[in-house]
Design a protein that fits this description.
Layout lengths: L25 E5 L8 E6 L2 E8 L2 E6 L13 E3 L2 E3 L6 E2 L6 E3 L9 E2 L1 E4 L2 E4 L8
Antiparallel strand pairs: 1-11, 2-3, 3-4, 4-9, 5-6, 6-7, 7-8, 10-11
Length: 130
């Protein structure tokens, strides 16, 4: 019989997705999968996430626009922002802050990013959706 001492109770979710390390980081892509100026959809467990390579720097954000639920990974990188494909709502990829239309504090969740060799790993969600 298996030892279940460290397992979550039946029906409860684990604190991190399967395959994540002890700090919750999960490898979701390879560095070459997200060239500068591009977006790529990945998943952190069951959470859809968009990886954004803005000027060679990688960011990870929730992949759903606050306005109408569009998939941000189908949008574009413009200047240093992530732009929604439906109505051009624009986000700061580092903070998740809504830039256009101007807002007083609306943000989408962000995820910490770690590059280990060629692997891109993201950690547990942080921000307003916590």
């Amino acid at each position: 019989m298996a030892d279940d001492a460290g397992a979550p109770p039946a029906g409860a979710s684990a604190p991190f997705p399967a395959g994540a390390d002890a700090d919750g980081y999960l490898v979701v892509a390879r560095h070459g999968d997200v060239p500068p100026g591009t977006l790529r959809r990945v998943d952190y467990g069951s959470e859809p996430v968009v990886l954004a390579n803005v000027g060679g720097r990688l960011h990870a954000l929730a992949d759903t626009c606050l306005h109408a639920g569009a998939t941000l990974s189908e949008g574009t990188v413009r200047a240093s922002s992530v732009v929604c494909p439906w109505h051009a709502w624009t986000y700061d990829p580092a903070s998740g802050q809504l830039l256009m239309p101007r807002s007083t504090g609306l943000c989408i969740a962000t995820y910490p990013v770690r590059v280990d060799g060629e692997g891109i790993a993201i950690g547990p969600r942080r921000g307003p959706a916590d």
